[in-house]
Amino acid sequence: MDIGMIGLGRMGANMAARLKRGGHRVVGFDPGAGARERAASAHGLETVESLQALVAALPAPRALWLMVPAGEPVDATLAALLPLLHGGDVVVDGGNSNYRDSQRRAAQCRAQGVDFLDCGTSGGVWGLQEGYSLMVGGDAAACERLRPLFETLAPAPDRGWGRVGPEGAGHFAKMVHNGIEYGMMQAYAEGFAIMQRKEELALDLPQVAGIWRHGSVVRSWLLDLAADALRDNPSLEGIAAWVPDSGEGRWTVAEAVELDVPAPVITLSLLERLRSRDRESFSDRLLAALRDRFGGHGVKRE
């Protein structure tokens, strides 16, 4: 099956490479010449220098997969792409878009007879080797038409992917997936921090992580990655205590509030990420000052 991949950053290029290995013809486009050159040299991908050339290189009805940053870049890409497409073509947004934006974009595409699928994609840098988890939202017939692509990208044709609902459902499921991921990561981080602080027991954290990986109820791929990180750098030396967020955790918390669903673990894990970026916490300094004022506890001076 022929597919056009728009966005040849690391994940987009890896997905294109997995599709190519699966026997599909992939034509890639990225506005950056460097990204096109890297994709061609690293994976042998066929690339073009414009959206017009990309569309012209694909037989109708076309399938085009977007792997561009969420927000305005997706809208800008669609604005440039849609005038080049025709009825029956399918556009897939495989990035981390807000599901409400995906619903709007689906209506925009539908007005021109073009199908739009929102595909929540998980797998990160390991997807090329292990396969991707794919949550697809949109028209059932359009999803079925692209089944060969989803089956190739997934860990296996019969697992790790599926149509989860109408337009917007794929990115909504991925949003919640990432919110859960926040909570799981925070729990692992706090647990290992407690063990690291108990100096009198001299716990070997890589060893403990390795034990937990097999048979434990807390085993997971995230724990596998934690074990690898601790093995390679037990003290995590050189890693700044600054944790970014992709935005999907914020969307999950906002959705929970709107739906009156209590989500304290996800919410607190998001707040901890925000806290990690406050290198000189004014709130902590004020707390110390208040303790000194009401209880005479003293203040540690810098």
Unreliable residue runs: none
Strand/helix succession: EHEHEHEHEHEHEHHEHHHHHH
Q: Structural class of the secondary elements? A: alpha/beta
**Major sheet details:** 8 strands, mixed
Strands, count: 8
| Distance between the ends | 63 Å
Order of strands, widest sheet:
3-2-1-4-5-6-7-8
Quick structural gist:
By secondary structure, the protein is α/β, with parallel strands linked by helices.
Features:
alpha/beta, 8-stranded mixed beta sheet, 302 residues, 8 strands
General description of the model:
Helices cover 52% and strands 13% of the residues. It has helices spanning 10-21, 33-43, 51-57, 72-81, 99-110, 127-130, 140-145, 147-153, 169-197, 205-212, 221-232, 248-258, 264-276, 282-295; strands spanning 2-6, 25-29, 46-48, 63-66, 90-93, 115-122, 133-137, 161-165. The protein has an 8-stranded mixed sheet, with helices on both faces. Helix 9 (169-197) packs across helix 12 (248-258) and helix 9 (169-197) packs across helix 13. It is elongated. The relative contact order is 0.08. The mean pLDDT is 94.
